[in-house]
Design a protein that fits this description.
This protein is mainly beta. It contains 5 helices and 45 strands. It starts with a helix and ends with a strand.
Length: about 725
Amino acid sequence: MIFFIGLLFSASAQNFKGLVVGELQEPIYGANILHENSDDHTHTNDLGQFIVRSAQVGDTIQIIHIGFEPKIYIIKQLDQLERIQLKASIFDLGEVVVGQNTKNTNIISMIDVETVPVKSTQEVLRKVPGLFIGQHAGGGKAEQIFLRGFDIDHGTDIQISVDGMPVNMVSHAHGQGYADLHFVIPETIDLIDYGKGPYYADKGNFNTAGYVNFKTKDKLEQSQVALEVGQFGTQRAVGMLKLLDSEKHNVYLATEYLISDGPFDAPQNFSRTNFMAKYSGELPGNTRLSFLASNFSSKWDASGQIPVRLVDQGEISRFGAVDDTEGGFTGRTNIAMSLTKPINDNTFIKSNAYYSRYDFELFSNFTFFLNDPVNGDQIRQKENRSIFGFENSWNHNTYLSDDLSATFRVGVGLRADQINNNELSSTLNRKTTINNIQLGDVDEKNLYAFADAEFDIGDWLFQPGLRIDYFKFNYVDALATLYEDQAQTKATFSPKFNVIYNANDRVQLYLKSGIGFHSNDTRVVLEGATENIIPAAYGVDLGTYFKPFPRLFTNVALWYLQLQQEFVYVGDAGVVEPSGKTRRYGVDFTFRYQLKDWLFINGDINYAHARSIEDPEGSNLIPLAPSLTSTAGITFNKNNFNGGLQFRYLKDRAANEDNSIVAEGYYITDLNANYTMKRITLGFVIENLFNQEWKETQFATESRLQFEQNPVEEIHFTPGTPFFIKGLIKYNF
């Protein structure tokens, strides 16, 4: 340890220091820097800074970053930081250098954001290749997520964050890991960073199948107002206004208002309001500060999941309901701060802090009259929550020898959730509380530390990492006769190790390995329902990024993931459903192809084999686990026209353990086009172009209708959107 500390602060006397920015003076992270006089290369850090070793005045460096014109820069001096500005350019896949980038997943997301802009909140998560979503509660509830053979429910096995602020809710009234992204205004998204598998030391709870981190814009290119009007009473208004626009300080305000009745026989009366303000600034010494404040509220009615038998018998339509008094309300207020400060030429500190106030109330009825033949089985899930936390990391780049460069990072953080009146109750018509099934206060804290490194030895990169998490769970049961603050603690260690080989500028091979975890609900932990309070996930990826042609970018990965335990707390019933150990493996294939300067093709094919390890063959399928998914499309952007055609495919999958009940797959096509005239853009979006009758979400559920003598287990579903068109007008100023 003393040896490494001594090496960290070694420095070269002949260094060139640069700062790469865009046309809006924003720092550019991850730009490739090639020192042409020595064939040495490096990258810009979070502050846009880089150092070229053994440089001399007159040397040439080349700077490359996707979405910008490559820049040749002649070194003029060595004694101070040089600001180098890149000029935005027509997107060109030919400029992507595979063999010098350790975050190629970012390349895929940057390609997609550039060529297929996000058009709705639902599309935010679909930007991750292989990730599918489904909505089943009137548009206001968090989406159901599918990835790598997981029915993730609302977020149990994927970690989601926005500007370093967690989205997943621990010990949530509806389900563990509940992740509602509807507080994000799609037009504010600047970068989508994602990774599949548990291979990243700075990602903790819920990072088993993967993680997604959204970064919002630090500044706007221009202000805009937009109006969308579509079928089913759909209207959406968006406003984005630059309040302060200077070289070093920027403030903007973004707002969104959305209403819709949906295609349902009983109108969903959905409404959503979003406000967001963000400051970003450059302080003395190239210190970067950002501050975000936002408020979100949403309410809706829902028709719920309906049984197939009622539709087949003609009793109700596909868009009908058994209990049309379902629905809910949710709201979230956020404050987040980020500070990135350089300590010296090789070191910077990054700090994030956040606070969220969250409210949730949901009425559902899944089984109708199965449990209560008189009043019905409607339930209410409700909670009020405060979340606060921080993360600080120390980041250092150095050369340990002439042929060995290294990056070190050490971080610590805390997340604390205080949940008041976490409730599950039986209700009637949203008005009457029949009885409380669960009611209490949860106090859950997660203190963590992580350390990782990257050693660059010629064409090889080695990335070891270790994460330590400490949890404290507290619960006060309001239904208990006597007061008792139940408590439990648990610590877990999560090692990681990745190896990357850069064969050349067109081919990169990698082997990733690591242990991740998802925690269980506090109430499960304290009930002693499982010995595995924090069940581990063991993962391995073997893959490659390569460019067989200059404008064709591809990724192939073979992967394996085993979970120690999948005890899941079912908030709908207040019980634990054990599913034991599971094993998943599969292959992901992704490509992005630029046929012309203005024409792009994208495609993803994902296969997964998911099974329970402890159950007998034939009864060991994992319900709703996707086995085959695919997306593809073609987009264009020429002169004043842009748009595209996109499709997604989900194969039939087992809805129960022995595949006796099958969830039907679907194939859906969407179309969009826009035309820009100076400051005005006119456009349209068509969802489900061919008007397919499809089931967006499906569950094998045992239910009983009021007139039935015996319960029936079969598919209950929420219908997918039929042909839906909406128009857009946008004004930029």
